[in-house]
Specification:
Layout lengths: L12 H6 L3 H15 L6 H15 L2 H4 L11 H16 L5 H10 L2 H23 L7
């Protein structure tokens, strides 16, 4: 059971938890929408990263949206999701050797976007986990 009541502000259960603070919810949602869209990285790659992180960050609402695609063979997606796994396990303490793998596959603009996406997604998922946001029926 969710730890606080959902507000009447927001379209999704997640937004309704943030909706107690409409200014924060609006800014959070705008940043989320900007990060989720195609940018330096495709939205499909970022969705696989989001799914990877969801398995580690404990938000049942986020986990219910699906696991990473086990048949994914794209090198960029595999590198990004592998990095997300290391990020989640190491709480952001990334060894240079792992970071250098990113440099072999991604440009600096792409690395910046990937890490911003990972950090923001982790924050969202932990917010949901702390408040015990449940999967939608």
């Amino acid at each position: 059971m969710v730890r606080i009541n959902q507000s009447k502000t927001g379209e999704t259960p997640f937004q309704q938890l943030l909706g107690h603070n409409p200014r924060i919810m609006k800014s959070w949602t705008l940043l989320g929408e900007a990060l989720e869209k195609d940018g330096q990285l495709s939205k499909e790659l970022k969705e696989q990263v989001r799914r990877t992180l969801a398995q580690r960050n404990g938000c049942q609402y986020c986990k219910a949206k699906g696991k990473p695609d086990p048949n994914m063979v794209d090198d960029r997606v595999l590198t990004a999701t592998g990095f997300a796994e290391v990020f989640a396990k190491s709480h952001g303490e990334i060894p240079d050797s792992v970071f250098n793998v990113l440099r072999d596959v991604f440009s600096e603009k792409e690395i910046s976007e990937l890490i911003a996406f990972i950090c923001f997604t982790t924050a969202q998922q932990r917010f949901g986990a702390v408040l015990q946001l449940e999967a939608e029926a």
